């Protein structure tokens, strides 16, 4: 069956599952199921996808090699390439190759996280007040399905880090610098897994999708491969690709990678700088927040709208652990001891950014859980009431909050996230550009996400969305954007 035929077959199944005449008319008109990932792809999107598929792996390689061979100096790499003192081939030849040790380390790591995810049901929610874990419902998919998830990421993080510290202080099974010592060989391992899981998800969508109603095909194999076809690919009842790869191998490792960097700095120089401590603390707050609010994360754009393809599969295995931790890697090669005012400013920016990020998300979660029967900033919340249709023909209602931070801008959580991202970078001083890649990337990512999210909401809610944007006119920065 061709891609177009498969797409049509899925569309026909959507119509067959509708319960009424009006739903069928909606399906035939092409309006039904338009929220979520797009059915069609324009040339600009296709070109962007092909460029990312071609160059994203080399961007990761470039930054890692800049640190390994040029003390994290981007300008020195570019000058050597321009003058002919180096070439892409010579840099490649000097890079450490794949090793069996790295393969064993990474295979054990991923297997261990799978075991924690699949075989250790959450118990932390039973004794941690306010924490929501265990079996939880996800958001309704475009086809009208509500998946169940085992929320145990915080428990997995605690177990993993408890074992890490027990090893460092008591057992001494391996060196605390094990990650950074094998950093480049591990890069090849993460790429192997990233491409393997992305390719498997791509083939699975054609041959044995978990839910055919939530598959979306375009006429482009490149777009399908990168952006994904299946909405929630699963193996068995509980192994959900999106939840596992979004949260476990990469984000659980994030804090371990930073700890390994700190241990390496101690090994090399005999001390750990305050900048390294700041990076570890601020990023650990972000990671812990992610796992504390994992049940809330089920309602975010990654789970609610993105399909699972290379964008998430390779991105979570490679891009996230290697580029989100650039600040710590930079500080291994370039230890920076900040002045007290500089360190205080970085800490303040990071904590204020986190406060805005967390309170904004908390206000939305509180509003959802109480269905508006709450107070925000001491007042009864205001909202825009909306309706939308899922692909199963059902009509659903939703409320868009216009109080608190959500009345200041439509994505104030992203604003806080960007403030925290800038703090990570500022902790590294201003001598090199490489640590600031993160804030540049996050700005592009979150602005693009704003546009994507609002396009989907416009398709989903129609005129109701126009009423919402009239009530809250700014996206990220009040009065500016």
UniProtKB/TrEMBL annotation:
Pfam families: ERG4_ERG24 (PF01222). The chain crosses the membrane at residues 43-66, 268-288, 338-357, 421-447. Residues 1-29 are annotated as: Disordered. InterPro entries: ERG24_DHCR-like, Sterol_reductase_CS. It catalyses: cholesterol + NADP(+) = 7-dehydrocholesterol + NADPH + H(+); 7-dehydrodesmosterol + NADPH + H(+) = desmosterol + NADP(+). It is a multi-pass membrane protein. Belongs to the ERG4/ERG24 family. Catalyzes the last step of the cholesterol synthesis pathway, which transforms cholesta-5,7-dien-3beta-ol (7-dehydrocholesterol,7-DHC) into cholesterol by reducing the C7-C8 double bond of its sterol core. Can also metabolize cholesta-5,7,24-trien-3beta-ol (7-dehydrodemosterol, 7-DHD) to desmosterol, which is then metabolized by the Delta(24)-sterol reductase (DHCR24) to cholesterol. This is 7-dehydrocholesterol reductase. It comes from Chanos chanos (Milkfish). The lineage of its organism: Eukaryota, Metazoa, Chordata, Craniata, Vertebrata. The gene is dhcr7.
